[in-house]
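Figure caption, in words: inputs first, then the predicted bound structure.
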Amino acid sequence: MAVSENGASKLQMAQHGSIDDGARDIDAVGRNRLALSQIGIAWTESAALRTVVELDVPRILAKHAAPPDHAMSAQQLLQCMPRASNPNAGALQHLMQLLACKGLFTEHLEYHNSSGVAGDHLGGSVVRTYALNSISRQLVGDNPSDSMANFALQMTMGPHVAATLQHLGEAILTSADPFQLAHGVNYFEFLAKHPEYLNVFQNAMAERSQAETGPLLLTRYKGFNSVKGLMDVGGGTGAILAQIVRHYPHITHAVNFDLPEVVALSPAHPGVEHVGGDMFESIPVGCDAIFMKKLLHDWDDEACIKILKKCYEALPESGGKVILVEGVLSPKETPGNTNAKSNTMEDEFVLRSSVIMFVHCVGGKERSEHDFHRLVTAAGFRNFQLLCKLDVSYVMEAYK
Ligand SMILES: C[S@@+](CC[C@H](N)C(=O)[O-])C[C@H]1O[C@@H](n2cnc3c(N)ncnc32)[C@H](O)[C@@H]1O
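Bound structure (S-adenosylmethionine present):
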């Protein structure tokens, strides 16, 4: 044991609160190393989430967990999985334990004695069971469109994303599209060739619209009151447009415009016409307002200006507006602020989203209010306003 000049050991000093600088340094280094490791292994919670959604754990809990605590052990969960031919309950439990630690499930501990009887038997075995809580209940719905299960799959790392991550450094050094480097085509071309990924992507977008953004948009934003004809450019399956026309029946002309392969798989919605096309070629005329949600963040500035110019051309000569719903980098995250540090969950989400856009899309990124103003001005719009905040996104309007 190391002993100091006055004869006291480091352990004694630590115990009496007079630890010396050397020992404090070791603690600080240890803490820094742990902080570094935590960032490095953040993928484990994402992988655990993806796996339990793939294995349908939330739905099994919703269907089979019994009162009083509505909880199941890993072993019981596996008994509800017909494909489990030689299950590893220990591994599933570790995933559930991590997710419970991150707040996704509630964990119950029960002590059992050697005969398997429950009670406070120290020295016996511990049985861990898991129940849905208010967060994991988002992964279950009365019908598939109420749940965020596809969104969880879309946000976590599918094999196409894992392959793309190998090219991020090269993409940074060469300004290439990392997705294209990995797959030979850009993200939307890839989706067109892989219906299984396209389905998850479009369902994920619809789930987010239905569960999160839609309700807030309808209560907080009043700009649809004056609109007669509304087009959603890049509207996916038309989920949000369907909500808007249900809420504002005075909108008599509603067009959901997206790529042909997307509108082909979109369900019919009363009052909504699906039109397939390419927004870089032309956007149909006939609406006095164009809505674009989470669309510009997929593209670089040059492409955004091209899209906005096509919107400008499609709006009536007499005027009209573009309604944008996008994440907005908070002022403290914008260039020039040397104190940039994310404080809120929303700020952190938008920063993470910017990385996701870089991974998926050529030049895609999140932007500041100032960036959006610059883009719409470059496309010819005469005025711009940021109007209200939704979940992690804001509503902005640009006027022709
Ligand atoms: C990030 S998603 C947003 C979907 C929807 N607005 C939402 O928020 O849920 C971008 C959408 O743009 C569509 N898109 C991509 N390229 C397009 C193009 N060239 N013309 C029309 N739509 C396009 C995609 O198919 C996709 O539905």
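The chain has two domains: 44-139, 144-399.
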